């Protein structure tokens, strides 16, 4: 059972004052205040012509007012309520609504919403040719009318330069007004900026005010069991640059499970039940299908299915709510010592659903389930300890159980930990720790589904639209979005640096990638840390700085990255950014090989190079410098040019690597012969 206990922490009067101030309602003046649009906007049609056009459309669609007409346009554009997407039909309706701004019969928020939708369509190329400049003009008109979503989008575009001129002060202004008006993406962005001091003053108390209302929305949904389905989070990599391999693998897995379920496999039935219930691996959430699969598995006596069916009946999810039936399933599962079923029984006794309320029995069932690692039971025990429900009120024990549950990703436990650290309950008072927990909760909301939208756009378009979609979440502090933005920019820079991307070319693209890698690394992304080292080493988008490269490689190495260890060893071997030290180079190479088995081959080559470097220094006494430089200058002129031509432009490093490969091959052959001779 997903715990829906409302026994969250009472923060006390002081905290209540902070939390009450977290949602700042925009005043009539503040809601309409907004930065002035940049550039000339298209001249709107006359008010009389716009109204006549609107009346005709309302008559054609058979609706009574402009708000209802907007709803019809949204259905045409997005295909909501099961209808087919027809954005080209939505376009004239939205244009008419946008053109009727100022008409007494058309609410200003309706016109603003139409302008915003037109912005979306021009940005995404839905029913029209994609044109960021036109999209920006529509967003600017909507922002003038106080549309917070448009203000937030303009903040993202001006902050990143993806479709609008980069303008940090203007971006910050748009973000501020949008966040004050309650836009979730803007609140996330302002909370993140103040938490880590990104383009804003580092101020924990301000971050708290922005993250709290977003986190509270997530908590409210969790308590109502309205998760919105599992969000597929695809990380782009060199091996899978568009993230398509995962979806292909998902399809294969689903086919396997469906085939096995038809043949009576209980495990397959249970798995398909979970996938349909949570909406995972590309499947939409469908509690009716989940119920069918769980029922089949329960018929075979599967205790996990008992627990899931009990949960569905207890909370009325896809079935009519029935405490008696829920108790029946929970008892069947608990009889087999199944943790989720034990937690379900504890939940029923704690709240008195279908049975007399009995905190003692509830605690016994929760303890039994918690000892087997059930996160919901751990959370419920924490709630009982903090509320003194049948147990002694003990903040330290509550903190312990909430921490156990939070380690498994329990949303309500994360939120309660935030409140406890904020108010010093069972732990030292700490605003930064509290806000980190609130951030983790806030990022679990349905707005994170834009990750899926960006990934889908990447499959059907070039990088520009996915960048804009990922950028909204990247600005909001989503590390995965930051990493994916950096990756897309990096790939474009490495392969087609002279092809414009949102008006950027060459080093400007590299500089934006570097910025996003820095943000991702700041949140613990080790691959981003390595990339920062590479950018500093080669001078991509910045001046070459070997000491800074060493610092980034060292940070990655300390996080047990074999790649970071290898790069640091190379720097030691060549005296790049630090004093040459063959002993430390060998040590780091050895540790890299111990850390990752796949590092064996490159480490062997690097060790051969290390031996050559050491031999060279011993033979020359270090008087002739690095062998790369020495032989490069010795070949010089025409001889060096001929060699480069003959080797298709390979540099001296590449030539030595080829030589080392040959040497390594000889070593392996000799070793194999020796082993054969021994046997």
UniProtKB/TrEMBL annotation:
PANTHER family: SEL-1-LIKE PROTEIN, SEL1L ADAPTOR SUBUNIT OF ERAD E3 UBIQUITIN LIGASE. This is Protein sel-1-like 1-like protein. InterPro entries: Sel1-like, Sel1_AlgK, TPR-like_helical_dom_sf. Residues 26-46 are annotated as: Disordered. The keyword Transmembrane applies. It comes from Chrysochromulina tobinii. Keywords: Membrane, Transmembrane, Transmembrane helix. The chain crosses the membrane at residues 654-670. SUPFAM superfamilies: HCP-like (SSF81901). Belongs to the sel-1 family. GO terms for cellular component: endoplasmic reticulum membrane. It comes from the Eukaryota. One of its GO terms (biological process) is ERAD pathway. The keyword Transmembrane applies.
